[in-house]
Amino acid sequence: QSVVWGERKQHTTQHTHTHMSSVAVKLWEPDQRQVEATALARFMRHVNQAFGLSLESYHSLWQWSVDHHTDLWASLWDFLGVRSSVPYDSVLLDPLASMDSIPRWFPGARLNFAENLLMRAPSDKTAVVGLVEGDEVARKLTFEELRSQVAICSAALRKMGIQPGDRVAAYAPNTVEALIVLLATATIGAVFSSTSPDFGVAAVVERFGQIKPRILFCSVKQKYRNRKFLLGSKIMEIVNSLPSLERVVLYNGVDADPTDCQDIPLSCTMADFLAEGWMETGDIPELVFEQLPFDHPLYILYSSGTTGKPKCLVHSAGGTLLKHLEEHTLHSDLGEKDVLFFFTTCAWMMYHWLISGLATGATIVLFDGSPFHPSPSTLWDTVDRYGITVFGGSAKYFAALEEVDCRPRDTHSLKSLRAVLSTGSPLKDESFDFVYNHIHPDVMLGSISGGTDIIACFMGSNPMLPVYRGQIQARHLGMDVQAFDEEGKAVEGVQGELVCCKPFPSMPVHFLDDEDGAKYRRAYFERFPGVWAHGDFITIHAETKGVVMHGRSDATLNPCGVRFGSAELYHIVEQFPEVHDSLAVGQRMGEDERVVLFLMMNPGQEFTEELVNKIKMVIRDRLSPRHVPSIVLETKDIPYTMNGKKVEIAVKKIINGEDGSANRDALANPQSLDLYVDIPELMTNKMHPVLSWSNLSQSSGGSGH
């Protein structure tokens, strides 16, 4: 059924999914003074004054924001101070158009993304701190110094002939050089796309080959765990596979290792390239910001590509800017006083999210290398050294800290820290406890969730609200997120599909090579016409309105017609001290499906029938008999993406006799997929209670993640 914006039916009948416990355990709460001082509270007062309202809580503000979404985004434009040379004609070109028609936001406006990041803070304030594993000397640039570097790079790009809409690619670690290239590209209105040196050649070519960049920036070396990796041979393969390239710019050690790169076609050093940007008088050129439409392309990001060719998602300058400003300023309470850090590579959307922190006047901290070298406390050293106030990492990072018993609270001051953010996968209940017990007892723990598809968050941190164990604090302003049952009705307290019922500015403007929008509509609007279906299972808590993530719905387990997310099993299984990691997938059995659970054991722990029986008993008691897996096997490795997400769909395809090994180079540990091919015990209809992996252990490889 088509769901019209603003029309939702609450549904409270019996549901097959597991009900969320009504008991919410509060772990942290801001005091009233803190709440009143937040930018979010100031925005609520702004809305009350502008519209003659008397909203008194975040939840009432959120309800207003989705009921009056065009007023919300117009109010945010003003409150957040978006810089534009030409005002917009209207908020939405056609407010009544269906959401799947790709709404056009703020027609008539002219602005520049880079200008909004570079021109909103005092010139002498530190804009960026660049850190590389093992290097004692950080690279620091003030906003004025950053503007000068961007001006030179921008002038060099223009001299080469780069124009609005051209593609500029970077195969780069998360360093200051990549940031300068990104911002210089945005000054022109060219489109920036990046990936990380830990990607294999095939994965890089599969991505950049689709977008046809004119110029490629590459770092020729990278450090990780105190090892230096020379990338010249990989760059050579990449360049030879991209016929669209006109120039290849090499940096980071080219002079030290010239023999590694001297034969790369079309190449020059970064120093030589930037020399072309200086004025003939030796002065720094003027920094020119092309004024472009709100929906002008800014970034091309990619779907994970673990089961097929990665989709190329084109995101707009205006949509990215406005949504990130909302998330940083209001939901993270970020401003000039702050220092923002998120552990990410240039291949993850959180890199772009981090960079946008500049628009608030905050200092951003970049880090390249291993977060566990020379010790697990490496990143917490940077918190104390640089006064980081908002610290972010993946859920897997926090789980790994707990696993190695790293307790920053016992060894570090962390006096500057006021917020900890996590994303990438659902943050476990135990990780909530770990943050408050062993990192800091008085911080806002923001589990945030969105995706590459929207280059932003649907829900996340909220400085006005408490933190409850296992819950994302709230849905973001303007994001009409609901949990839909299979009939397309909104439910609370039970698991449903994550949908968004109103348009928002950071929706992709299009997919590359999808002129009629068919791929776009199929990706998000096929499940519920007119409503964005994101492909995740969530539960919205009836009392707190917090959100619990249950994992991907496209990897749904469906035994005997009961649909549930794999994360429900992970939450239980990975509490067992014997288990290092787990993976649950469905295997087709005629018209039905059985659940297969793979266990990766901790070192020194044995996979036994006794352990399996204990796990099954707890699953039965805490969830239901239908959640109990039919088959349990030991595995030596579990596949992950480069960004720390479990790869369930590829394994599901493999055990169902399909090709799930496409784009192996997009995985952190591609050899792990070999472990799931032709498993004899899964090639029968017999429901085995427990099976060992010993017959396949010889084919296991290193974990790589």
Write down the overall mean pLDDT. Answer: 89
Low-confidence stretches: 1-19, 686-705
Distance between the termini: 42 Å
The biggest beta sheet, please?
A: 7 strands, mixed
What is the strand content?
15-25%
Q: How much is the radius of gyration in Å?
A: 25 Å
Based on helices, strands and strand pairing, what is the structural class? Answer: alpha/beta
Strand order in space, largest sheet = 4-3-16-15-17-18-19
Backbone shape: globular
**Helix content estimate:** 25-40%
DSSP strand count: 32
Q: How many DSSP helices?
A: 20
Task: Please provide a written account of the structure.
The chain has 20 helices and 32 strands. The model is unreliable at 1-19 and 686-705 (pLDDT under 50). Helices cover 28% and strands 21% of the residues. α3 packs across α4 (69-80) and α6 (143-160) packs across α7. β3 and β4 (139-142) form a beta hairpin. The strands form 9 sheets. It has a 7-stranded mixed sheet with strand order 4-3-16-15-17-18-19, with helices on both faces. Strands 6-5-7-10-11 form a 5-stranded parallel sheet, with helices on both faces. A 5-stranded antiparallel sheet has the order 25-24-26-28-29. The chain is α/β, with parallel strands linked by helices.
Q: Could you outline the blueprint of secondary structure elements for this entry?
A:
Layout lengths: L25 E3 L3 H6 L1 H13 L6 H10 L1 H12 L29 E2 L1 H6 L7 E7 L6 E4 H18 L6 E5 L4 H13 L2 E5 L5 H11 L3 E5 L1 E4 L2 E4 L1 H9 L6 E5 L15 E3 H6 L16 E2 L3 E6 L9 E5 H15 L7 E4 L6 H7 L7 E6 L9 H9 L3 E5 H9 L4 H4 L7 E5 L5 H11 L4 E4 L1 E3 L4 E5 L6 E2 L5 E2 L5 E4 L5 E2 L4 E5 L9 E2 L6 H7 L7 E9 L6 E6 L13 H8 L5 E11 L2 E10 L7 H14 L8 E4 L13 H8 L50
Parallel strand pairs: 3-16, 5-6, 5-7, 7-10, 10-11, 15-16, 15-17, 17-18, 18-19, 31-32
Antiparallel strand pairs: 1-22, 2-12, 3-4, 8-9, 13-14, 14-27, 20-21, 21-23, 24-25, 24-26, 26-28, 28-29, 30-31
Helix pairs in contact: 3-4, 4-11, 6-7, 8-9, 14-16
